[in-house]
Write a structure and sequence with these properties.
The complex is a heterodimer of chains A (484) and B (496). Chain A is an alpha/beta fold. Chain A is built from 15 helices and eleven strands. The chains are: A alpha/beta (484), B alpha+beta (496). Bound molecules: zinc ion (ZN).
Chain lengths: 484, 496
């Protein structure tokens, strides 16, 4: 049995039955990492010793009769979530030596359920990017074509899942950073409703948009992880006190009569022809399962990218102010305080991070605030209302996840605007705070995965999972593996 | 040229919560550097603030105590700037939609009281402390970082350094009374900044202001403002211009010094704090906080008994309402004997107010009037019965003045009406003052003795009861205004 290929539900069943031990499973994963990581570069830090310790501990718990979906499951965590005693870099030089003395709420939940941490995965520095090329610690490559990017910013997590370098992974999504790499890597990426999952311990990029979510091989695994990481956290006052349903309970329910909205603004010029074709076929497939397509309009879609890049950079300019070389992380000594600040931040941050700090600082400046930040907040409300209005008539909305399949490394690095447009179909969902998933819905003639995005109402991840599972189970896309 | 001073104060008060504003760290003063810190208040990556509800409650309690409007919906904002004692690179504060708006406090002012309006009260977190050591090294202590701080902003209603000091004193008294701040200026738990400007008397526009910092005692508030006003007036008189800037009070040298100019001022780039939900204050919560304040009456009552030696009955009545207690304390602070003040308040004053259902804060007779009246009784100028009629008269005239003030814009009214009633004027007007001038009384007595030689002879022969005759004559001659004590003394001396 190729243990590294297992899903969470398969692996946990095997562990529960005593067919495999958590240590065996962990060793299989590290063998796999040994074999392919050089080609992929998914990880910033590999925590083998720590993982074997965790696997032994999980094994003890299994022997004591404990059961649990996550007991002994090797998982990778995006390196912008704090892990106590384990380096957390955000793929930035400025945190290159940072070891948090605390654990993020999400990884604490995973820890308590006995997961095994394989390592911390690569990302665009501070999650700012769409290709995982903006990392201080090297590029991550797409397992389907190593000349191409895995998407971003959770490119390391998505590539690790696609390349079977972990059983599942956790990512974060501010403007598409879970869904777009999931789409590029042919895996399942879920961005929950804003407030569904605690952000405590997630290094902030844009606080009002950031949300943690799972990246998995199947929809079922996604639902399993969502059951664990969801919930109100006393350490995050933006986490919602909403009831947590059992997300796995909707899997397998039929979707007859389900109304799926097809927004005309998401099927436009600029969408790759093959991508468009696969998504249209996916809609037909859903229709054959009993769903009812409804043409809808989200009229303010055209303003989403501009709105996002004002709000996200404004919040980022403030969130990243703490990296000043005074308390922790990298410091470049200067001749006085101001010089130290400037040298530290000049050397510690990469170009894209600096670009966004400058943009956000400008947008919040006195005299510009009303024209940029305030206006963008107003547009954000309109975008949210677009979705709310659409959801009066439909149950879910279906779109392509990204306008293109994975692009070539270096193709867009010289043109930030082109790079920003890569998130054009995912950004609105973050602005509106809705839940959305990306699942594989086909492959291009060049054997690159294409992603289908399914968006739900606030706190209605159930409809999203139900639709995604129905589609997934009626197709074979999720069973394909890249040749490495 | 005559100049008028305009002062607005920003008072910062550390709240008496046991823990910090966004984490569970202690707020105790004086512990070893950085011993009361955690990832949250140190501003480590990925941590989030969670509001200490007690801090919000204390600000609302303060707002109720100074008659603010309590916002039902309030928001926090980030104030962005770089400084080593500010670990996140921004301070969580309030900008738009503060917790409290409006309100006022009354301060004693040259024998009367003056209302100082409040603009707003908001909640924010304190910064840490930079300590500059030897060998070119600086240290940062973050124990104070994240301690809840309340900012009370006054309207530019203050006209003198003395008023500024009285305002600070009043704020301190209130904050201590409602138990939200210990008011310790030396330890920095109560601090203030001032915006100061001067303008020619009669000019409506404000002059260019300077912002004064580092005034860490009542005395320094008065001194620093005094210095700064003189500096500004001299600057203008010499043909110079005031530069808008921030200035520090240097207590050692007794001067204010420029810290940074307007051009160097920070652009704080305020924006709504995305990590905190807006605070919604429900009416039921406000009612509960009001009830809690009333509970504090017990504390005040106990203090009135111990500090002023009042019987429990008096203390109970005087603390039944905050405004009544304040009226009493104002009178005492102006020099009134506590028991006498209490007697008058509980007797004549309450009777008059109750008759017309007037709240004590609108009482036409002010604490200063009562204190003046008490002094006249004490030095024998008038007796208690006369005092009562003066009391009633002041009360009545005060009401006329209040009514006239309400119609201030009517041109027909004569300006004299507006001048405050003075106790001594009423006493003179009513001809109530006793003659205590010995020479005047002596002249009258000499006259009587000269006109009644027979009675003088009989008195000297032993007819002692004739003393009453002489006193009566003297009182008659002075139309009853002679001080009887002095009359008796003089007669005894002369008839020896
Ligand atoms: Zn703390």
């Amino acid at each position: 049995m190729a243990l590294h290929k297992l899903t969470i539900s398969e692996a946990s069943a095997a562990i529960e039955k005593g067919e495999i031990s958590p240590v065996e499973l962990a060793n299989a994963l590290f063998d796999r990492i040994d074999a392919v990581e050089k080609k992929i570069g998914a990880y910033v830090t590999i925590t083998m010793e720590h993982a074997i310790g965790q696997a032994k501990e999980a094994g003890n718990r299994v022997r004591n009769g404990e059961k649990g979906k996550l007991l002994g499951i090797p998982m990778a965590i995006k390196d912008n979530m704090c892990t106590e005693g384990i380096k957390t870099t955000c793929s930035s030089n400025i945190l290159g030596n940072f070891i948090p003395p605390y654990e993020s709420t999400v990884t604490q939940e995973l820890k308590e359920r006995g997961y095994v941490l394989t390592g911390k995965t690569n990302l665009d520095e501070f999650a700012m990017g769409s290709s995982t090329e903006n990392s201080a610690f090297g590029y991550t490559k797409n397992p389907w074509d190593t000349a191409r990017v895995p998407g971003g910013s959770s490119g390391g997590s998505a590539a690790a899942v696609a390349a079977d370098e972990c059983i599942a992974a956790i990512g974060s999504d501010t403007g598409g950073s879970i869904r777009q790499p999931a789409s590029f890597c042919g895996v399942v990426g879920m961005k929950p409703t804003y407030g569904r999952v605690s952000r405590y311990g997630l290094v902030a990029f844009a606080s009002s948009l950031d949300q943690i979510g799972p990246i998995t091989k199947t929809v079922e695994d996604s639902a399993i992880l969502m059951n664990i990481i969801s919930g109100n956290d006393p350490y995050d006052s933006t986490s919602a006190p909403a009831a947590i349903p059992d997300f796995t309970s909707v899997l397998g329910k039929e979707i007859k009569g389900l109304k799926i909205g097809i927004p005309k603004e998401y099927f436009i010029e600029g969408i790759d022809a093959e991508v468009g074709e696969h998504v249209k076929n996916a809609v037909k497939q859903l229709e054959s399962l009993g769903a009812v397509p409804v043409d809808i309009s989200l009229p303010h879609t055209g303003y989403a990218v501009a709105t996002y890049y004002i709000l996200a950079t404004s919040e980022a300019s403030s969130n990243l102010a703490r990296y000043d070389g005074v308390k922790y992380g990298f410091r470049a000594e200067g001749k006085d305080l101001l010089d130290t600040y400037m040298k530290t931040r000049a050397k510690g941050f990469g170009d894209e991070v600096k670009r966004r700090i400058i943009l956000g600082t400008y947008a919040l400046s006195s005299g510009y605030y009303d024209a940029y930040y305030k206006k963008a907040q107003q547009v954000r409300t309109l975008i949210k209302q677009d979705f709310e209005k659409a959801f009066e008539t439909v149950d879910v909305i279906v779109t392509p996840t990204a306008p293109t399949p994975a692009f070539r490394a270096g193709e867009k690095t010289a043109d930030p605007l082109q790079m920003y447009l890569s998130d054009i179909l995912t950004i609105s969902v973050n602005l509106a705070g809705m839940p959305a998933i990306s699942i594989p819905c086909g492959f291009t003639s060049g054997s690159l995965p294409v992603g289908l995005q399914i968006v739900g109402k606030h706190f209605d991840e159930e409809a999203v999972f139900k639709t995604a599972y129905a589609y997934e189970q009626s197709t074979d896309w999720h069973k394909r593996k890249p040749k490495l | 040229m005559q100049y008028e001073t305009v002062i607005g104060l920003e008072v910062h008060a550390q709240l008496l919560t046991g823990t910090k504003m966004f984490c569970g760290c202690s707020t105790r003063f004086g512990s070893g550097p950085n011993t009361q810190t955690c990832p949250i208040c140190i501003g480590m990556p990925g941590v989030l603030p969670v509001m200490n509800k007690k801090a919000v409650e204390y600000v609302i309690r303060t707002g109720i105590a100074v008659d603010c409007r309590i916002s039902s919906y309030s928001r926090f904002a980030r104030k962005n700037y770089f400084y080593p004692d500010l670990p996140k690179g921004y301070q969580i504060s309030q900008y738009e939609l503060p917790l409290c708006e409006g309100g006022f406090v009354e301060i004693p002012d040259s024998g009367s009281t003056k209302k100082i309006g409040l603009t707003r009260i908001h909640l924010e977190e304190d910064a840490g402390k930079n300590i500059h050591g030897g060998a070119n090294l600086s240290f940062v202590d973050l124990n104070r970082t994240g301690v809840p701080l309340m900012e009370i902003v006054s309207e530019p209603d203050i006209r003198t350094p003395k008023q500024a000091m009285e305002f600070m004193k009043k704020i301190r008294t209130i904050l201590r009374y409602i138990n939200v701040c210990d008011g310790n200026m030396e330890q920095g738990s109560l601090r203030c900044d001032a915006n100061v400007s001067v303008r020619p008397v009669g000019q409506r526009e404000f002059g260019t202001k300077t912002e004064m910092k580092n005034m860490n005692s009542f005395k320094f508030v008065e001194k620093a403002l005094d210095y700064e006003i003189k500096r500004q007036i001299k600057m203008l008189a010499d043909g110079g211009k005031i530069v808008q800037e921030t200035r520090l009070w240097n207590a050692e040298r007794g001067i204010t010094e420029s810290m940074r100019s307007k051009e160097e001022a920070h652009d704080y780039r305020y924006f709504p704090e995305p990590d905190l939900a807006p605070v919604e204050v429900e009416a039921s919560w406000i009612e509960k906080i009001k009830a809690d304040i009333n509970e504090l009456q017990d504390v005040k009552k106990a203090r009135f008994i111990s500090q002023f030696g009042l019987p429990e009955h008096d203390a109970e009545l005087l603390t039944s309402e905050r405004s009544v207690a304040e009226w009493f304390e104002q009178a005492v602070s102006l020099g009134g004997n506590p028991k006498n003040v209490s007697n008058w308040m509980m007797g004549d004053l309450m009777r008059l107010l109750n008759e017309e259902n007037i709240p004590i804060q609108n009482c036409p007779l002010k604490p200063a009037h009562l204190v003046d009246l008490l002094k006249l009784i004490e030095d024998g100028t008038i007796n208690r019965n006369q005092a009562k009629s003066v009391f009633v008269e002041i009360y009545k005239r005060g009401k006329v003045i209040q009514a006239a003030k309400g119609k201030m814009n009517l041109p027909a009214l004569k300006i004299e009406v507006y001048s405050e009633v003075k106790v001594i004027d009423i006493v003179k007007e009513k001809g109530l003052a006793q003659i205590s001038d010995e020479s005047e009384i002596e002249a009258a007595i000499n006259d009587i003795l000269e006109k009644n030689p027979g009675e003088v002879e009989r008195f000297k022969a032993g007819e002692a009861k004739l003393m009453g005759f002489f006193v009566g004559q003297a009182m008659k001659a002075t139309k009853g205004k002679a001080n009887p004590k002095i009359v008796n003394e003089l007669l005894r001396k002369k008839l020896g």
